[in-house]
Amino acid sequence: MTLDIKICGLKTDDALAAALDCGASHVGFIFFAKSPRNVDKAEAGRLRQAARERAKAVAVTVDADEAMLDAIVAAMEPDMLQLHGKESPERVSEVKVRYKLPVMKAFSIREAADFDAVQPYYGVADRFLFDAKPPAGSELPGGNGIAFDWRLLASLDGTVDYMLSGGLNAGNIGEAIAATLSRGIDISSGVETAPGEKSPQLIRDFFRAVRAARTEGAA
Ligand SMILES: O=C(O)c1ccccc1NCC(=O)[C@H](O)[C@H](O)COP(=O)(O)O
């Protein structure tokens, strides 16, 4: 089974190049002013050119309105939209129709009951992203570098297409892959030296750890 790998919160040419050279399937750009990973629309449009034909460019937004989404879509021509706020199923549908793009809907998970919120989005969102619930006081719905209990994912039907996210890094990705049926993984702060500062070396280390875990799992 292939495993999609999304490197999120990219802002620089060297980090993007490392992600693409390592074989990232998805590269994410954050449009959220309070995030240290927030990127200017035009800059994201410039950066995403390198990803064409190599990886899917994902625009990550939080409860964005039409004006903001229109501007992002026009400036960077994403391949996918990641909705990381409290967007309702109706809103996800509207966004899909308006932009004719696949939508990945993010959910914050801390306990089993958090998966109850996912049900109304089946058949609406194209993919799910399960991330850890932000810690108290965090202004960021994502990118907090904390993991949730992956055993909770066992309650999901095996056909659910999701990306596992939250607090992944080269040290724990082997355990994460072994513990879940995830078809995709998503990482941000685990390949940073400081909030928003992606490290090409940490990106390479992460991919090396993924490859080692997959080889081990296949043996
Ligand atoms: O990363 C951010 O700063 C961010 C801000 C607002 C909404 C979403 C955000 N990130 C979304 C992602 O897809 C991250 O990769 C995901 O939350 C995992 O982050 P991390 O735990 O740091 O690996």
Automatic annotation (TrEMBL):
<dbReference type="InterPro" id="IPR011060">
    <property type="entry name" value="RibuloseP-bd_barrel"/>
</dbReference>
<protein>
    <recommendedName>
        <fullName>N-(5'-phosphoribosyl)anthranilate isomerase</fullName>
        <ecNumber>5.3.1.24</ecNumber>
    </recommendedName>
</protein>
<keyword id="KW-0822">Tryptophan biosynthesis</keyword>
<keyword id="KW-0057">Aromatic amino acid biosynthesis</keyword>
<feature type="domain" description="N-(5'phosphoribosyl) anthranilate isomerase (PRAI)">
    <location>
        <begin position="5"/>
        <end position="208"/>
    </location>
</feature>
<dbReference type="InterPro" id="IPR001240">
    <property type="entry name" value="PRAI_dom"/>
</dbReference>
<dbReference type="Pfam" id="PF00697">
    <property type="entry name" value="PRAI"/>
</dbReference>
<keyword id="KW-0413">Isomerase</keyword>
<dbReference type="InterPro" id="IPR013785">
    <property type="entry name" value="Aldolase_TIM"/>
</dbReference>
<comment type="pathway">
    <text>Amino-acid biosynthesis; L-tryptophan biosynthesis; L-tryptophan from chorismate: step 3/5.</text>
</comment>
<dbReference type="GO" id="GO:0004640">
    <property type="term" value="F:phosphoribosylanthranilate isomerase activity"/>
</dbReference>
<keyword id="KW-0028">Amino-acid biosynthesis</keyword>
<comment type="similarity">
    <text>Belongs to the TrpF family.</text>
</comment>
<dbReference type="InterPro" id="IPR044643">
    <property type="entry name" value="TrpF_fam"/>
</dbReference>
